[in-house]
Specification:
There is one protein chain. The protein contains nine helices and eleven strands. By secondary structure, the protein is α/β, with parallel strands linked by helices. The strands form two sheets. It has a seven-stranded parallel β-sheet with strand order 7-6-5-10-8-11-9. Strands 1-4-2-3 form a four-stranded mixed β-sheet. α5 runs parallel beside α6. It is elongated.
């Protein structure tokens, strides 16, 4: 499960900035999910706003200490979108692969696997969409990729508090374990040159209704060669304009909701 990270900035007041949740919505969702926050810091100039008062009351009901701070306190943080609402939490608790596979669920398995995505905004946005689409978990590698840090939590708008996120050593091995558990592996990949096998298919022409894992490749590089070989299907979103590709989180959203559409059509949701 969770592991404390070594190093990283430790300010203000000696706190580890890796364990920060910032922004009103991210903090509110963490409280709603019952995350064991250490304390909550709120700007004194916002403390009388009705939505902030409700957040404070929610924290106090959960016995989370609330501290009121002046603006210079928040200026010490590197995050600009904190909205004068910052909480400190224990280190993020990652799920295991088995916990993702055996989570309570209705309908077929839907898991998102990130193949070394490094932009925390993309990771957070994908987690947010995956949770909204009813996915059962997100899997990320533990090296050369963004982990669950404050920027990811902010971009996920609280979804990381509700959706299991597993961190694994080897993505290719993990895909083989998913296949052994009965899941089909769908890789998001751009169409390759003529003669490259296997070729990708338009995402609307494949069946998304069984147990499956959707793999999203790294920014710019796409799927790694080893991961690509583990995929049962390679799919792409047709590009009809002048640009050649979509942002990773946008592509993930389109593909996830195709799975939602097809499953809803068969009454599997």
């Amino acid at each position: 499960m969770g592991r404390r990270r070594v190093g990283g900035p430790r300010k203000p007041n000696g706190a580890n900035l890796d364990d920060v949740i910032y922004g009103f919505h991210a903090v509110a969702e963490a409280l709603t999910a019952g995350e064991p926050l250490v304390h909550l810091h709120v700007g004194s100039d916002r403390s009388r706003e009705p939505v902030v008062r409700r957040l404070i009351e929610q924290a106090r009901a959960l016995k989370v200490p609330v501290r009121f701070e002046e603006r210079d306190y928040f200026a010490r943080f590197p995050y600009k979108a904190h909205q004068s609402v910052v909480a400190f939490s224990p280190p993020f608790s990652y799920a295991t692969l088995d916990e993702v596979l055996h989570a309570d669920r209705n309908g077929p398995l839907l898991v998102v696997v990130l193949d070394h995505i490094t932009d925390p905004h993309n990771v957070g946005a994908i987690i947010r969409t995956a949770e909204a689409a009813g996915a059962h978990g997100v899997i990320i590698p533990d090296r050369r990729a963004a982990g669950i840090n404050p920027t990811v939590r902010k971009a996920a708008a609280g979804a990381s508090a509700h959706l299991p996120v597993a961190r694994v050593t080897n993505i290719s091995q993990t895909l083989r374990k998913l296949k052994s558990a009965g899941a089909w592996i769908f890789g998001a990949d751009a169409p390759g040159p003529e003669g490259r096998e296997p070729q990708t298919q338009p995402y609307t022409q494949v069946d998304w209704q069984g147990d499956l894992a959707l793999v999203i490749g790294a920014e710019g590089e796409g799927l790694s060669a080893l991961v690509r070989r583990e995929c049962d299907y390679l799919v792409h979103v047709p590009m009809l304009g002048q640009i050649a590709s979509l942002n990773a989180s946008v592509a993930a959203a389109i593909l996830l909701y195709e799975a939602v559409r097809q499953r809803a059509a068969r009454g599997e949701l």
